[in-house]
Structure formats: structure tokens, C-alpha cells
């Protein structure tokens, strides 16, 4: 008696990918693009926290069809004689067969299951075509299956930015750039305890205060504004307009 399709392979054909996950329907980037080989179910990125120790394989899209990277798929099943295609410098294999009507019968290389034209020396256009061919002729798929106890997602897998802190990818912390104009930004100055010699750092708040009132001078004490500074600031203001005397 032969060995048929394993449960994860049946799920690979029956599950629908790149649809919204019903469990996380309100979350962003909730398309189901991962298959858990241990649970035999499709997952979205938000589902991965409960499957992080399972065997996971990413499903990708190419010309409106589901594909898997060849290097990932070969860890669980023999992919020899299946034609691969190159996407972003990586080889991928179609999951399901893609039937194509042969316009004329002639010499050439065609898929064993769906008559799709292929390059030499390939004889299968997809994983599904090879599996059907093997089961039809050998009735045993077990020699083509490979033992794989650990299968993790590739490093280029994108996690949504709104996931929890433990699942989020490295993100640049929020920062604020303050424009001090021509005045250099000074760092915090520690030192003497004498209040007369203490200097205050030029912070964003201080700069705003200077722009609004014209009284604060960066690097001087807030409470020690001299009369000279006050007079200089007041002299910059427009004087009171004088009206001509009435006749």
C-alpha cells in the first residue's frame, strides 16, 4: 500500500492565502501568507505568536499565483524536475498546476500533468503536478518527503509595525530635531554649586521662550537677566507712533 499526501501538503492545496484573517480582521496587514506545517492551517503575521515554535513556511505571490521559495520547499519535499522561476534573485516554485491548452502538438518539452510548455530538462511546472505524477505512477510519495523538524521563516519576512514589542522588528526610536539657528546647542553643564556661575542648557523650551519674548539669552541664567539685556531687547521694539496735532 502506497503513502499518500501528508496532512500539511493537503492543507497547502486546500487553504486559501492572501485573504484577510478572520481572527485579526481589524488589524493592519492581516493577510494570511504563512502555512503552519504542524497545525496544517494558514496564518497571518498576527497569528505567529502562538506558532513560533512550529514549522512555518511563507507563501508568496507571483503573477497572481501562490509560490514558495525553492530553498524552503526542498527542506520538506524533493523538488527535482520541477521548473523554478526567479523572483528577486531567489528561485520559487508554483504550488498548484496551471493548465494551458496546447495550441498544436509537436516536438517540445511539456508538463506531465497540464501540458504547459517547459524548458529542458524539467517535466513538471508545479509542485502539484509532480505530486500527481508520482502518486499516479508510483503510488507512494514517502521517498520524496524529507524529515524536517525545524522550519522557520526567512529573514526577509515582514512583520506589521503595530504588533507587540516582542514581535516588532527593529525600529528607529522617535527623535526630535531642534533648530537653534546660528547658536550652537550646548550640552548639560554640571559643576560649581555657586548659583551665580551656574549655566542653563539651551533646550528646545528655552529657544521657544527666547523667540517669543526676546529676553532669554542662551547660556545665561533665566533669573539673571541684566538691565543691559532688558534695554537692548526693549530697544528692538517699535516705538509708540506719534500723531500730528489737530488743527
Topology readout:
Elements: H1 7-14, E1 34-36, E2 41-43, E3 56-58, E4 60-62, E5 65-69, H2 70-73, E6 85-87, E7 90-94, H3 127-137, H4 204-213, H5 227-235
Antiparallel strand pairs: 1-2, 1-3, 4-5, 5-7, 6-7
Descriptive overview:
With 247 residues, this protein is of the alpha+beta class. It is 17% helix and 10% strand. It has five helices and seven strands, in the order αβββββαββααα. The protein has helices at 7-14, 70-73, 127-137, 204-213, 227-235; strands at residues 34-36, 41-43, 56-58, 60-62, 65-69, 85-87, 90-94. A four-stranded antiparallel β-sheet has the order 4-5-7-6. Strand 4 (60-62) and strand 5 form a beta hairpin. The longest helix is centred in the middle third of the chain and has 11 residues, at 127-137. Residues 21-59 form the B box-type domain.
Amino acid at each position: 500500500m502506497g503513502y499518500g499526501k501528508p496532512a500539511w501538503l493537503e492543507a497547502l492545496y486546500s487553504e486559501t492565502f492572501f485573504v484577510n484573517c478572520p481572527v485579526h480582521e481589524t488589524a493592519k496587514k492581516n493577510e494570511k501568507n504563512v502555512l503552519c506545517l504542524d497545525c496544517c492551517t494558514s496564518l497571518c503575521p498576527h497569528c505567529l505568536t502562538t506558532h513560533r515554535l512550529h514549522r512555518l513556511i511563507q507563501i508568496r505571490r507571483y503573477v497572481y499565483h501562490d509560490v514558495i521559495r525553492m530553498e524552503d520547499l526542498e527542506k520538506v519535499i524533493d523538488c527535482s524536475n520541477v521548473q523554478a522561476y526567479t523572483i528577486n534573485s531567489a528561485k520559487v516554485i508554483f504550488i498548484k498546476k496551471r493548465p494551458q491548452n496546447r495550441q498544436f502538438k509537436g516536438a517540445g518539452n511539456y508538463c506531465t500533468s497540464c501540458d504547459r510548455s517547459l524548458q529542458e530538462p524539467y517535466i513538471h511546472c508545479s509542485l502539484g503536478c509532480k505530486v500527481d505524477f508520482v502518486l499516479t505512477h508510483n503510488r507512494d510519495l514517502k521517498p520524496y518527503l524529507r524529515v524536517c523538524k525545524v522550519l522557520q521563516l526567512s529573514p526577509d519576512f515582514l512583520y506589521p509595525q503595530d504588533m507587540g514589542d516582542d514581535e516588532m522588528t527593529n525600529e528607529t526610536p522617535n527623535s526630535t530635531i531642534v533648530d537653534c539657528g546660528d547658536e550652537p546647542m550646548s550640552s548639560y553643564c554640571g559643576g560649581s554649586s555657586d548659583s551665580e556661575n551656574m549655566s542653563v542648557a539651551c533646550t528646545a523650551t528655552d529657544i521657544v521662550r527666547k523667540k517669543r519674548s526676546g529676553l532669554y539669552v542662551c547660556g545665561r541664567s533665566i533669573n539673571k537677566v541684566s538691565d543691559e539685556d532688558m534695554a537692548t531687547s526693549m530697544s528692538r521694539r517699535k516705538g509708540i507712533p506719534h500723531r500730528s496735532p489737530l488743527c
